[in-house]
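Sharing a chain and its predicted structure for anyone who wants a worked example. Both blocks are below, sequence first, tokens second.
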Amino acid sequence: MCEPAHYRIDYEINPWMRRANAVQTERANEQWRGLYETLAALGVEVDLVEQGADTPDMTFTANAGIVVGERFIPANFRFPERQLEEARFIRWFEAHGYRIETVHEPHYWEGEGDVLPGEGVGFAGYRFRTEFRALDHVDELLGRETVRLELTDPRFYHLDTCLAPLGGGHALFYPPAFTEAARAALAENFSALIAVSEHDAARFACNAVLAGQTVVLNTGCAETVRVLREHGFVVVETPMDEFMKAGGSAKCLVLMLDAFTEFEGQGRP
């Protein structure tokens, strides 16, 4: 995670971002701290990377890349506004003993924002922030083919804004964010798909963090919370409104260091 010391809306690169809709810095810090403390209380060990003054979106660490064992595969951000983050994340992972393996430029892709693990399967979203061809290189590094899912709604520009694999065949998803073929692929890979409503999707219900059997998500998603509890999950709600201003919520603020452990030892030697 990355404390939002310099988080602000300096530019507009997705439908949620409006420079006129300024971040309330104190409230954003409180909300980030609330998520951090919630995860810590659930037994999640959190490492911190320092944000640069010139990288206002760096607090959304999920987009930095993916971690596969001792390898870090950094993102190639699509927009120049976020490309300064790449070197900062690479330096952090190098300093912590990770081997850096890259996706060939100029193919753009945005890390765990668009590539998510699900019980030994990698799910990869593409269209808005990840290029289809980039996923050829991601597959090579992972050592297996990802399930490719085409996104359709620019509001849900990253896969983690509209899909949350939860284990045991469960996943949250927002159906209109996917093509018909992508919805069919999800149905083949999850036995218990939970469709969220338009209202809850717009509250980033799918941008949830899983810690054991506990799902941590934004407040204001009552229907999703009810259904998750019916499926046996514990749910913790924590406010993320200040981060919604930039098009993100709980999951966007977290890069998982152990999510792709099943892929360790595979991929390009």
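Comments welcome. The radius of gyration is 17 Å.
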